[in-house]
Each structure stands twice: as structure tokens, then as C-alpha cells.
Sequence to fold (263 residues):
Amino acid sequence: MRSSSMDSVAERRLCVVSCHVERPLDDQVWAAFRRFQTRRPGGFRVAAIIRPPDPASGEDEETWRQRAEVAARQGPLGHHTHFGGVSTARPAAGSTRLGERIATEARLFEDAGLVPRFFVGGGWYMDPDVAEALAERGYVDCTAACFPRRYLQPSDRRLSLASPAWLRLPSGRRLLELPTTHSLGALLRTCVRLRMLNGPLVHLCFHDTDLLSARRRSALWLALEYLRLMGRPMDLDQVADAWAATAPEESLLSVILPAATPG
Ligand SMILES: [Zn+2]
Fold:
């Protein structure tokens, strides 16, 4: 039985789930994601953070538009960029003007009549130029993460933030940041080790390709049932609305890693 204090913590903790829709033009992956999103596991409206088509790779824009429309009817919509192309999430070393890629991709959403509100950078990449491009579009960013990402090197640019904040950018603009707090693996480890969930927001993310594995699909259902009991199921739109008015302000440069060295 849960104590009343546990109940009040669970009542205040907002839980939300998003999917990086990496392969919207792969029929098998798309069918798995569509089925999962439509069924609302744990009662959650799953946000689709979808990668736009890459015309340079011959990806079909019309099929993508139809699928993105379906996803947008089922839950909040976001924009996921692979800076280095379809299968290369992070930008190549020395890449510049990454904000231009975001603007080009954003036009594909606009042309389709879609209005994504959220953004996640491929490979969790973030830099000031990207942040400015996001703020200019009024996006809410979810690229900050605080769970272990062993494939990142200490020198890889990323954001480290555990709870929502308005990030103050060098231009003076502000960008609302709703961190991604747990991967599926990180949440399951917390659950199995009976550790407490910390913080006022639990934002679980997974990848559409996870859904091809029956084992990972079952693990996701389990994780979302667990979250439903441990907090208040919300969707990303509701969480963004809730935090927009109350999130504290932080300098982008104070949460971007690796920290800039003087001179
Ligand atoms: Zn990706």
C-alpha cells in the first residue's frame, strides 16, 4: 500500500513519453510505431518526434507527409534532425551553419501544413547556432538529457540538464528546454533496482526501431504502466504548457558541454 506522502509526490510528478521516429519511411517500422501510438499504452499520448525526409537521399516527401499527419492526430508532434544525413545523427566534425538544415527541414513541415512544437537533435547534439534556430521557430527543445549515453565522448557537444528551464541564448532569445530524463534502459534499471524516481518530470524516450523487438515492446508497455502508477500521465503539450510559466531561467552556455574554455 502507498502512503499518502508517496501519493502526493506521485500526484505532483509529471510523466510523459516521446518517440524519436527515425525511420518513418520504413514500412515495417512505421506500422509498428503507428500501432503503438494508437493504442496509448499506459494511457499515454506518445509524442512523435519525427525525422523529415531527406530529398538528397531520395526519401519520398508525399508518403512522409501522410504518415506525419497520422502521427500528429494521435499526439504531440516534434521535429528530429539527423545533422549528418539519414543514418548519421550527429554532425560531421567541423560542420557549421547547422541552423540552416533545421530551417530547410522546418519548411517541409510547413509545406505539409504541420506545426511541430518540439525538437530533439540527432545524437543529442546541441550548440548555440542550433539553439538560436530553434528559438527563432518557437520550438520547445528536448535535447537535454541526464541519463548515461555511453557512445558519447567527453568532447561531444551536448546539453546537460535534469529539469525544465528557459535557456537564455547569446542573442537574448529564450528557449524552453524540457529535458529527456530517461531512456527505456535507464527507466527499467530504476524500476528493477527499486530506486526512487527523482525530480518533478519524468520524460521517457524511445526509438521507433525499438518496437521491432517483441522484448523491447513488452518492456515499454511495462515501463509505461509503471510510470502511470508513479506519477501523473501527461503529454508533451501539457507539460510544455505547465512549465512555460514557471520554469527557471539558465544561461545556455552554463549547461552546454563541454564547457567553453576562456580565451
Ligand atoms: Zn535520431
